[in-house]
């Protein structure tokens, strides 16, 4: 994602929570969540494990070996990850569960060398990712490029944020315009009273009808003396045959 994309997310997050986060912090959290979701997918593909409370049942040694260095993964022993639907939305086409090695710049290790967040190996080890220009042979089948089917999760998320910001901006603009109009009318009607047209008078009533239009208020504001404003209102009363 571009620096501008991270900046937009950071600003939206700040507006919602009041907390500031840098691009590095946001990217690190994104990677952590992706690793968590990948591990969850991998867990659910393991055979020979029981199921309870929406997660797999395994002994202490299994969880100790496969969650080493990932304290957040240990919570999956007690149930699915929080906000599972949102994780699916974010990573459904990018997280790897070990059944495929077709991830740009990554391949599946053939040997279990330790715990790293990412894809699983062919021997049933916990998910891990290694960087490389070539991928090794895998028993899995390459998945179809998801970008040919739909927009990436990040694009959809950013579009959602942009649409929300646009909607909020439109609402804010309408509110500001309404407030400015109300203040302008209030100012004009105050000048009407000050020039000698008290509330309840014919001139005051005509002014309330005229000043709905901003151009009429602007003309009234250009008149510099109370006498001139009152005479202007009286002429309008005559034009409307109010006398």
Automatic annotation (TrEMBL):
InterPro entries: Myb/SANT-like_dom
Top-level taxonomic group: Eukaryota
UniProt region (Disordered), positions on chain: 95-150
Name of the protein in its database record: Uncharacterized protein
